[in-house]
Amino acid sequence: MSTVQLAPPATRRRFTIPGLRGTGVVGHVSAAVIALAVLIAAFGESLAPYDPDGTNLSLSFVGPLSDHYLGFDSQGRDLLSRLLTGARSSLLGPAIVVILSILVGTALAIATAWRGGTFDNVVSSGLDVLFAFPAIVLAIMASVVWGAGQTSATIALAVAYTPYIARILRGAALRERAREYVAALEVQGLRASAICVRHIARNLLPLIAAQGAILFGYAIVDLAAISFIGLGVQPPQADWGVMVANGQSGVLQGYPMESLSAGLCIVVVVVAVNLLGERLTDRADEVAR
Amino acid sequence: MSSGTNELLSVQGLAVDLPLAAGLRTVLHDVSFTIGAGEALGLVGESGSGKSMTARAVARLLPPGAVQSGAIHFDGRDVNTLKGPALRGFRGQVAMIFQDPRAHINPVRTIGDFMTEALRTNRRMKRSLAQSAAISMLDEVGISDGALRLRQHPHELSGGLLQRVMIATSLLTEPRLLLADEPTTALDVTTQAEVMAILDELRRDRNMAMLFITHDLELASAVCDRTAVMYAGQIVEQRQSSLLHDDPLHPYTAGLVAARPSIDGSTARLNAIPGRPLSAFEAPAGCAFSDRCAYAESRCTEARPAIRPMFDGLVRCVRAEDLRGELGVTVHG
Amino acid sequence: MLKFLVRRAVMLILTLFVSSFAIYSAIYVAPGNPIATLTGGRTPSPEAIAVLEERYHLNDPFFVRYFHWLGNAFTGDLGVSIPLRQNVSTLISQRVGTTIQLVLYAAVIIVIVGIGLGVLGGLKRGFVDGIVIVITTIGAAVPSFVAAILLLSLFAVKLGWLPALGGGDGVFDQIKHLTLPAIALAFSAVALVARVTRTSVREELRREHVQTATSRGIPMSLIIRRHVLRNAAIPITTVVGITIASLFAASAIVERAFSLNGIGAYLIQAAASKDMAVVQGITLVIVTVFVVINTIVDVVYAVLDPRVSLGSRAR
Looking at the partner chain, which of B20, B49, B185 has a beta carbon nearest the beta carbon of A2? Predict the structure, then answer.
């Protein structure tokens, strides 16, 4: 068994941001794209050159002009301004979904892994039942119960993603729980909650970051889809999913600019998020080994 | 080396570079040996010494991207130039027994599929014929309920049974050369001896040649006519197996002999060689063993020593003549 | 094997039972006044209200109504749509054909293109693999409704090759009408399946037992078929199965984008118009299909992989 010893890699230090260490060029470029999108989400409203809601029906579907780079939508609103403004709801909603599902999912995962027994069985079975509900179906049910809107869509998606994140993290937490250092800490008399939060949760962070990125990509797509079918963000508010839907009549008349530009925004951000998620997953796998 | 007519396998000046993270690295360097028909050659060394890679090079199983030089001839034919059907025909005459049968047998197919695959594909043998051949071969390796075993999956068999299946399978195609890569290392100590005995007996019965790879010098001596000792991708000594233990010529061989607890002695005599085994590309400029060798002199670190014929064998040590006899004394002292 | 199947069946029934309860109770607590819906805003007489309450079992306790609904669901009766005064089952059966056709069409595309791309990327290195990686990276990020817009504007409007909206009449016309929706529905799933396939093929190619087969002189084409693809089929089947199960829900968005008259688009419409019985009915159908297909995937997994001990739950 000639296991060839790997020589230490060339120690040329490369520029890297602490949270992104080990994610490579692709990870850094993806993070830069995401950072740009976040900046637009934060300041897009003030960056918008025109009023995103200012309609002018005489400009309906007028193509790109010298100072209206993307032209106008069906109601003569400046498209670029709407895309910039719409970044906020298109990204903030998914971010909240991810934060909620990760908080609840991680807590459930560590609690079930730690307690085991009946508690684990009951919670895990409950989560298994939730698995039977596709995210879109949950969102539609939520729109019936709480009315259509971004709040019910966000809650529905957070609920739909929680069993997914809980299942993945529970496996990792069980492996972590079985490690010697946890037994050592228990013998030292450290409280369970302290071990769970300070040690187990902390050691799961690389995996949590990776899963967070992956879920963020799903959440952007799913929330936009819910807005697209009219059960999420409500028009006339600018939102990428709403804009794809709103532009559909234009597509059929040969003016696809609104739908395509909003769709492209979604695709670009999701590609970046997915690539970063992949790199973070690879890194988490390496850390776990 | 002479190229006598009864040579089955001849390896001359084999060198292999592997693509690793840090670039191409040498893992084999100037490896030469021959195996006659029906002869067994032991290849002994620590992990990373290149012994498995040597067998892989012979079987044309180097990983993609590996750079190989040197000549390998099997039955007078150049192995390196074989392609397509000719390569597959060659592989039909050379069988490899791997260290870990569990990884080396497809877990989702039955034992029967595994055993008869080569016969049915390459020899176009009928399923029923191939199966009865497999059953009788299983009987020879001490598995009497062969018909049942053929229907089972690998996970239903123990490691020892699985390795017997692997041995039986490799004998089924009646190869002329066996490449046995640590065939008993992954097994329980209790089954090791049994499996080894079966392999040894069946090989002798059929007069097959064997390249036997192990880290166990004693085992190689017991099974093989000649033994070659590898260190850092080179053969450092090659002799009659019976001579190697009592009269080692290379300090490394002596170290290997000493590192093994002898049956009569106490554990106090267990001498480990200082330092850790090196791969070829990590070895120092002169003699690869010089930085761990108790007998190293300045000339040892200056140039890489060539392998020289000496006392009915070959040795790669500039001080071999001076040290003869001394090594054995030190080891047992 | 039998024990395993029984166990899976029991789990399936339990999951469906709890899900049905969740569906019924969630919609039950939703705001809304069925009497007002029934009477269209007019103020009915107390007698009329009593008749309506009697007919639609509005005054029964919650659990009575739930078990009544569930019991009827077993016989294929999903209740009555109060706004439309029609059987929910009838309403669903009029539309479910479109959804099934769309999902099957998309499933065929996913299996052929997804597995094909993945095997190609897994077996070939370098340029071909690079193309597969780029296609799947981008493809995975294209939501079905964005794919729908792209396809519409390119193939329906610009090139005029295929019809834009609606279902069509006759087999050939239906296939034409469903082609763009099926591609849109399959789009990101193709990328997902291709990625999993590519990775599995790569992993299997590296396995030691593939080396064994090579060392025995088995031709490469046979090694790929008998060992690499056979073993990779286990994870591929799982991801394809789970993906197809999720298509029934995802088709709602595509049906909406292409104005198709399937149960998904109808579910959205019913949710918007607060037609509770229809929402409950279609949700129950989608969840049932999803759970049943996932159970089948588990069983197929166990059949394909002899290592799975049939007594325990998969994974």
Answer: B49
